[in-house]
Automatic annotation (TrEMBL):
This is Sensor histidine kinase. CDD domains: HAMP. It is an enzyme of class 2 (transferase). It comes from Cohnella cellulosilytica. SMART domains: HAMP, HATPase_c. The chain crosses the membrane at residues 16-37, 283-308. Its EC number is 2.7.13.3. Its main location: membrane. Residues 305-357 form the HAMP domain. It is a multi-pass membrane protein. The lineage of its organism: Bacteria, Bacillati, Bacillota, Bacilli, Bacillales. Keywords: ATP-binding, Cell membrane, Kinase, Membrane, Nucleotide-binding, Phosphoprotein, Transferase, Transmembrane, Transmembrane helix, Two-component regulatory system. Pfam families: HAMP (PF00672), HATPase_c (PF02518), His_kinase (PF06580). It is found in: Cell membrane.
Amino acid sequence: MLAAYYKLSFQTKIQAAFIVLIVLAVSLTGGGAYWLASNIVQSNAEKSGQEAILRTKQVLDERMRHIAISVMTLMFSDVFKDTVRDVSLYDYSNYYKLLSSMQPVFAQIKLNEPLTQSVLISTPMGDFYETGNTRNVAVPFLDSELHRLHTEAKTDLWVGGHVDPYFASHQQVISLVMKPITNVDQIYIVVNVLESSFKDVMRANQAEGYDDMILIQPDGSEVLQSSPRLWKFQMENNKPMLTTSNESDYILSYTDLNLKEGWTLVSVQSKSKVLQQLNRIKWIMISVAAGCILVALLVSRMLMTFLMKPLHHLRTLMKRAESNDLKVRFASPYSDEFSLVGERFNRMLEQISSLNEMNERIYKEKSKAEVKALQAQISPHFLYNTLNTIYWKNKMKQSQKVGDMVLSLSRMFQLGLNGGNEMTTLGNELTHVEQYLLLQQSSYENLFRYEIAVEEESLRLEPVLKLWLQPLVENSILHGFKNRREGGIIRIAVRKQDGCLICTVGDNGRGMDARTIKQRLSDPRLAENGHGYALRNIDHRLKLYYGEQASMTFESVPDEGTVITLQIPLGGD
């Protein structure tokens, strides 16, 4: 895609830019209007849904309160009191008389609250219920699930949708289980309400256009289960969350019932239905964008005639410059962008000569830096100390140590010269610095010890610039361990990170202020006076070869030590 764009003509790019700008402007304007309108419509829908669900909650709470009050009325009736008295006296002879007397009371409860489907009073004397309902005697209340739930709750409770186990109709009901306050423990009252009646109440108050209204429990399951479950919820921080579909596609309104803690009434509305009326705005925006594109094509053609003229002139001058005619210059009576480009073109031609001179100067500085680098690595002071140590060890008949030092010095020179090549391998560079450290350990016995760690052995084969590690360890020995007689540690660690080679050289020497080091490296006058010359030389050489990808950082604390970190890109040649 990008390659195809690069091949387009300037005229086509201008036309494309006009189209993009106009489409962007129209899209932002239309999109903003659509977004604002959708927010207003959605806000109104949420408000309407919340009002409807609060209204439904009030109705459900009121109907459930009526049922509870009806049961309380039953408890205060004479026939119920007579039943409790007989049960307490273990007089069960009046059961059928009391059952007959209960029928008007049951009828009155259903008259007061039509949602009531059936009422069951469980007593040691026997069960009392409407004789018009067929009692399922195989399921006594005391051994049922509702009795277990009531015992666990230790209070009156509403039980969500379930199949009625006490009557032969086995209808889907919601139950209220109550235990009257009497001197008899085993008296319970169960009021069953048809799920369908509950749903009818909810549908009657459901806001227009809403998909569904659901009553759910704390675990997210529905209280009413008489219809197929279209939605699945879970409660998070007392807030219902849809799990069966993308919740962002729906508007949820919810509220908790007062008479049943944990029951939450939720209404669901599809946002696509709410925003359907905004489709007209969308099509108007598309039509306006199409018209603007046509206008952009016409206007861009007119502009190109004027814009391309100075551009063609500038292109002609560039072709002459390609033929080494560096005396050409762009001239224009205007002060537009093309004139600015022409001025930059003129400046570019003027700077070509100076750039050539700069390249020659950089090459000379590079060669000079290489010579000085080699001189810095093989300092007369180091050679003097090494040869002097070899002499005295020879006088002391330490032939083995003399032989080791001569081999180390020979190996060090061999690796430093590297056959005249500027590049070596990391393994050779580490070997070179190790030979230097061995020689210095022989010259300064017990002054320091060293550690060299390479994260991956394969890194030893990586090509690197030669002679950049030895000055760092020399700096640690001559400056870091100055006035120290023993206990010095030099640690060299090499690892790979993000395509770069990271090398750290640290010591536990006397250290210095890291800010002072940076000032000496950045000030050539201080370097020429011998302060930080080796470090500045390394930094300069690395940047010459590797560019800005190479870096040198310092961490130094007085009397604690110094850590120098070098970063160079891998894959150099």
